[in-house]
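=== Per-residue structure ===
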Amino acid sequence: MKMLHNVLEFFKNLPAKNCSECGQQMDEQHECYGNKCDKCMGISEL
């Protein structure tokens, strides 16, 4: 159980990620491999 707790703490403490194109802070993708925000990738909200 301690190992799981350590992994969860690691992900909780990751710094905010910024878009590599415009520099805007990306809110919900701290743990993913993407490096561009939705706007720069041309994704619009419905």
